[in-house]
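Re: weekly structure request thread

Next one in the queue (195 aa):
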Amino acid sequence: MERSSFSDVSFLGDSLTQGMQLYDTGLPNAHFCAYKGVGPNAVVNNTTCRRADGEKEVPMEALASQQPRALYILLGTNVLTSDSDYTSFLTYYRLMLDMITQALPGTPVYVQSITPVRPEVAAKKGHEGLNRDRLCRINDELAAVALEKSCYFLNLWEVLADENGDLKAEYAQPDGYHLLPAGYDAWVDYLCTHT
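Done, posted below.
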């Protein structure tokens, strides 16, 4: 699939997806519903969210008006930082997928895995939940949720993780979980070959 064929698809996500919107990824005509710091609960609760350009919108309203040909979702990093029970995250994710399939009947939905991070991220206070083993467990559960809801699951670790299961150093911003342009490039290439 060519990058140009993403012109009528939407990406729903947080600051990681905003990065894809802001870097020159070769997806100039895709729609982005990307809001810093949000998780699936913000979508389910119809919270008003702020886009990268400062405009405010309600994610589900924006998606319904876009009526995309396909939808790519990446949510979770922000709500998974503490190493606590993540059942509510999965519950909200299921509810969000139900709302999306109601608002966009027949639209293929791609659930993207939570992305890997550098090993030092989980060592930071308040980010213990972003450790590799926990993220792998959550992604296994997300894959099962995608299957249960008749969505596709895309495992971004195949392209973003090194042999240890950490975010590749050459793709990582100094904070250890946001991506450099090279990381977005690899991610977009992966989407082109896996849809």
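Strands lie at 10-13, 31-34, 49-50, 56-57, 71-74, 109-112, 152-154. The chain has a mean pLDDT of 94.
Next request, please.
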